[in-house]
Amino acid sequence: MDLRWIRVLVELADHGTLRAAADMTGYSTSAVSQQLAALQRSLGVALVEPVGRTLALTPAGRALLPHARTVLAALDTARGALAPDGPLIGRVRLAGYATSLAHHVIPAVTALRERHPGLTVTMQEREPSEVRGLLDRDEIDIGVVYDLSLVSRGAPATAYHQVPIELAVAAADRRPAEEIIADPATEWIANSRSSEDDRLVQHVTAGHGFSARLLHHVDSLDLVVHLIAAGLGTALVAADGPRHPGVRRLPLNGLAGTRRSYALTRPGRESWHTNAAVISAVAASAHDR
Length: 289
Hints:
Helix content is 44%, strand content 22%. By secondary structure, the chain is α/β, with parallel strands linked by helices.
C-alpha cells in the first residue's frame, strides 16, 4: 500500500475537500483524487462519500482512519531516529504564546544559534487554540501552549514548566487578597482570546456567594497591568508576567493554581532530532529563570 494514499486519506478526513487535501499534501487535486481511488480499489471498499460540497468518510473509512494515523506517526518517529546524533541543521517552525516566546523560546534559540549556526527557528505569536490548528495543518513543527491547572480540560502532555497564579491589584489598594476576592464590587480583567481566565475568576470567587464582575477582556498583559495601575480592575496573572510600579502582586498560596506550559508536536515527531533539541533547550531556558 502506497503511503501517499494513506496521507491523502488522513488529510481528507481532517479537511473535508479534495482541494484542501491537495493543499496539505502538495499534490494536484486530480492527483489526490487518483490516489484516493487507488486506495479504495486496493481495499475493495468505498472509503468516502459526498456530503454536500465535501467528502465524508464511510464507516469503512472511519475504521481505517486511526490505523492510517498510526502508520504515519510511526513513519515520522522512524525518520526522527535515523540520525539522532547528526548536526542540527534546517528550519524548525515554532508558534507559542507571548510570555513563552519572550521568557523561554528566545533565550533558547539564542543559545542554539551559537552552537548550531545551521539551525533556524522561526517564531509566531499564537494563542493555544491557534497553535493546535497550526499543528493539525502541519504548518508548524512545535507548538508551545499553556493551560490553567484549576480549570484545565485535560493536560495535552507533560508540562515542562509551571508558575503560580497571583492576584494583581492597584498599588493604592492595601487590602489583603482574601478581602479583595470576597468583595462583590471587585472589577475583574480577563483574557479576550480565551475563556479560561473567566472560568478561573469564577472558580476563585465561587465560595463567596456571588458571580464575579468581569468588566474588561484584554489580550495584552502590558495593557492589563496598565488598567490595574489606573485603578480600573484586578486580575489573576501568572507570577512571571510584566511588572508595573503601580501594581501590587499578592501570592495566593495555591488558591488559583498554576499556569502550566507544554511543547507539542504532531504525533511521532517529538523524537525528531531538531524538534527534540529545540524542546529541550526551551525547557532548560524556562528552568533557568
